[in-house]
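User: Here's a chain of 285 residues. Predict its fold as tokens.
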Amino acid sequence: MATVSYERPEALLDVPFHYCPGCTHGITHRLIAECLDELQMTGQTIAVASVGCSVMAYDYFACDVVQAPHGRAPAVATGIRRARPDRFVFTYQGDGDLAAIGTAEIIHAATRGENITVFFINNAIYGMTGGQMAPTTLEGQVTQTTPWGRNPAEAGNPIKVCELLATLDGPAFIARVAVDHANQIHQVKATIKKALQCQLEERGFALVELLSTCPTNWKMSATEAMRWVHEQMRQQYPVGVFVDRLREDQNSGRGGSAGGRHLSGPSAPEAVGLTALPAGYTHKE
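Assistant: Prediction complete.
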């Protein structure tokens, strides 16, 4: 008799994704949904959708979802979390939404230590609008608005969001992971789960940056896009944990909630130590 070992998380609706082939938004959606299931938080969750390729996230997550104006997801999430402290709130934002028009919102939500969780999708380009340069576009990267490659003398340098927010006193957890190979998935999921757990424990602001693909606008195959994340994006944006107040408190003997109403849920996963595992890519010419 066959046994089911892999099935759709309850936190994901049974509908097909609209994302392009090779896009890693779908992988990230699934990992977030699996963590919500395991933490038993779906029924208490309110997500905040951004503007960009992920604008239709409300079609996929089996929880309440609020649509925010472009770049304003952290501000909307702040209002929801303060008005409904019994609810679990996360935002899902791309690099154009969070790191360009939404720069002020993300910085101030982080420095206030708002008790929200942010998932930041960095694919180094504006995807939905046709492939223009984003704040995270790499030096020399060709886009619709940098046809000869990004020149820092003209367009500035790429913004490193994790490193920027890590200089603030407010965040409880800041980490960067890469969705570029199957051997990374368990690390990525554990990091997502820990960011969610920060909110459950009322520890404050948590953000996970996910290095992701955009094969359509990069004009690559899915395999080439995965390789490009591994070989190029990781050099500019090294994976790792930048802030981890939970681990600091564990090491110092402190623990528990930082105050406020405590949401119910299973105990926290262990702190995640991120490493760049070797990726074995195969490509048929």
